[in-house]
């Protein structure tokens, strides 16, 4: 089985993430969306909210699982028997950053990193931009899947 993980904080899930995930499931038998937990990071959305956003967005995709993890991504890959890490690239800066991580992960393990370019119409979207729009009362709905709802 070709199992991959797509790691991230997903604070929140964006249409850019959604794009990579939907294209990624065509490459793998199973794709685990792996939400990393970092106690030092301040999140806008709770872990439970982020899990719910993702589960609702992919409720009809049997090849997708949503799990949370702490620690090194390569250790999580070994734990879930994933041979691949899927990453999305929006721009050259993403590539340089992700390349260093991929080389380090490859040094630590046999895990391969697969990069997909985000579709051009979504390459400007980032979770930090979405959070800024939400904080300032802007219309975030064109930047995230319908499952991301901040009204409480």
Chain-wise SSE layout:
Elements: E1 3-8, H1 15-24, E2 30-36, H2 47-57, E3 64-69, H3 73-80, E4 84-89, H4 92-108, E5 112-117, H5 127-135
Parallel strand pairs: 1-2, 1-4, 2-3, 4-5
Structure characteristics:
152 residues; globular; Rossmann fold; alpha/beta; five-stranded parallel β-sheet; 5 helices
Molecular structure report:
The chain has 152 residues and is α/β, with parallel strands linked by helices. It has helices at 15-24, 47-57, 73-80, 92-108, 127-135, and strands at residues 3-8, 30-36, 64-69, 84-89, 112-117. It has one domain: Rossmann fold (3-Layer(aba) Sandwich), CATH 3.40.50. The protein starts with a strand and ends in a 17-residue tail after the last helix. The model has no long low-confidence stretch (mean pLDDT 94). Substrate binds at residues 9, 41, 73, 87. InterPro entries: Cyt_trans-like, PPAT, Rossmann-like_a/b/a_fold. One of its GO terms (biological process) is coenzyme A biosynthetic process. Homohexamer.
